[in-house]
Amino acid sequence: MTKPSPTSFIPQQATGQEPPPDSPLTTKEGWRRFVEHEPSPPPLLTTAQQAALSRKEKLHDDELRRNYHADLPLVNTPTIRKVIATSRLLVHLNRQQISARRGVIISGASGTGKTTALSQLGRSHEIAVRKRHPRDRSRLPVVYVTIPPAATPKMLAMEFARFFGLDFPTRFNITDVVNAVCATAAHVHVDLVLVDELHNLNLATRTGAEASDQLKYFAERLPATFAYAGIDVEDQGLFAGTRGRQIAGRFTVIPTAPFSHAPGTDRDAWKSLVGTLESMLRLHHHQPETLTGLSDYLYHRSGGMIGSLSQLIRGAAVLAIEAGSERITEDLLETVPVDYAAERSESLTAPGKTRSRRRRVA
Question: Second label for 55, Cα 20 to 30 Å away, from 140, 301, 316, 360?
Answer without folding.
Answer: 316
